[in-house]
Amino acid sequence: MTDKLQRPLLVGGLTLAATLWMLEFLHQSFGEWGLYTLLALAISAGVWWIQRPSSSKVSDVPSLPKYIDATAVKQALAEAEQVLLRLKLEADATNPALAGVQPQVTLLQAQVGQIANELDRETLRLMVLGAKGSGKTALLQLLQTFWVGQVPQSVSLYEAPSFGVATAGGLDAEALMLKQAIAADLVLFLVTGDLTDSELQQLKRLAARKRTLLVFNKQDLYLPEERQLILSRMQNWGRGCLSGNDVVAIAAAPKPLKVRHYQDDGSVQEWMEEQPPDLGALTQRLTAIVQEESRQLVLASALTQAIDLKAQTGAVLNDVRRLKAMPVIEKFQWVSAATAFASPVPTLDVVATAAINVQMILDLGAIYQQKFSVDQAQKVVTTLGSLILKLGLVEFSTRTVSHLLKTNAVTYIAGGCIQAVSAAYLTRIAGLALIEYFHTQEPNLTLSDAKPLAIDRLGEILQQVFQKNQQISVVQTFASQVLDRIIPKSTQPSPSLRTDPSPNTSPSSPLSPSVPLPPYSPPLPSPSLAIPLSLPQPEVQVVEQNETKTSIPLAVPLDATQSPSS
């Protein structure tokens, strides 16, 4: 602690001494005016620093290359077709759980043909988007009337829903904007004044994937000097994602202008005079883009759609694999519960659970087309164990389950129940974390050797899964299901579950064992954690994916193929 404090104090003291010396020197050399000048410069630098454009990272959406040819589009489409082929192989039509996947496969297959036809498309698609009241409809009508017929290229215009409009599918404004922009070749981003922070972030995300123009509409509502100031700020904010020529100011439907005429007899006449639309800057820029970039715009749209199709197909493939992986996790969590309940030695519970997790990792790897060796699976178990200890999951599960279960039977049964529920809970958390980790990777389309785990990323996901499954109601339901699995109805000690940690409150009524676990939902990002751990090494036989048996250290016999309830 002392070593860490000495260096900052030393540097701070030297800096302060140097600053005082400089102030004294300026005062002696230039008098008070030197100090005032230095103060003014410092204030100016501070104002510039505060008002400078933010350079924070706005999105992880990949940007398209500046030059795109048909070969790049065909390659991206071929990659999407490979993922789709793998999805067809794994989405077994005879499996009732996968019946809802077949319509999605058909829809994705239809998109492949549509994207292939995009390569020969000649009509450009121009989309106008903006907030409600930004003048989208008026601008579209003017472009259709006065501009579309003046360019040699065929252009199709359409309007996107306004920002913030709710949809039946539950998409938020940003997701809806990106979804609508996928099919467009050129996007006009309409604003009516200074950009808000949310509009700026949306603009940057959109410009990373689509050719975009920032259009300042309703400039007639501002004084001439204000118009130029706002336009300059927009060009400054859009720097890095837009060129200066792609920021233009227009007045699609200017307000009528009051005209006052003084007669020779001294009388005054007033009337409202309609003003013509001012679209000159926009139409000139659009014409230049259409003439110079029409082919690139079409190819860029096709490439974006191919990349998006691959992402959609990968998401459906991950859903199919999740449906297949969940029964595997449930099988091994019941095996862990039965083993921990029957074992009289608490130390062996941890060892047995680790060995069970090795076999679970091998089975999950087979589903996700990742071939783990037994040695690799042991390393994964060690990593998961270290992360579980770091996050305090063992302490949480033991403390929570001990509190929830009221011990009305002999000490052996009560202790076995606690160990059984804890072992099953930790096995489930580890399995769910592995599923989410596999989903963050590029989906393996053929069985290949598993890559080394990214420890930091796995730690993040494990923490996210734990946060999703640490609610008392989830643990209550899970504990009830575990007890129904390992204890026969006639010999159960009638455990009741309670949620209030206070010992002075009365327990709640028993939870019905038929209540299913809440549906699992993918977690949200959170900070990473990682710490090494060494586990004991008794011996057990584990079946590898090639059906051979390999002995790993464990001193307790284990059968991971049968559920204790069967």
| Helix run count | 15
Q: In what range is the share of β-strand residues? A: 5-15%
Radius of gyration: 33 Å
Strand order of the largest sheet: 2-1-3-4-5
Mean of all residue-level pLDDT scores? 75
Alpha-carbon distance between the termini?
Answer: 58 Å
- Helix-strand pattern, N to C? HHHHEHEHEHEHEEEHHEHHHEHHEE
Sum this structure up briefly:
The chain is α/β, with parallel strands linked by helices. The protein contains 15 helices and 11 strands.
What tags apply to this protein structure?
single chain, about 575 residues, alpha/beta, five-stranded parallel β-sheet, two-stranded antiparallel sheet, 15 helices, about 10% strand, extended, disordered N terminus
What would you say this structure looks like, in words?
The protein is an alpha/beta fold and 566 residues long. The protein has 15 helices and eleven strands. It has helices spanning 2-30, 32-51, 70-90, 101-118, 136-146, 173-181, 197-207, 224-237, 280-342, 346-367, 374-391, 393-404, 411-439, 455-468, 472-486, and strands at 124-130, 155-159, 186-191, 211-216, 247-249, 257-262, 268-273, 370-371, 448-449, 539-543, 549-553. The strands form four sheets. A five-stranded parallel β-sheet has the order 2-1-3-4-5, sandwiched between helices. Helix 5 links the parallel strand 1 and strand 2 (155-159). Helix 3 runs antiparallel to helix 4 (101-118). It is extended and about 110 Å long.
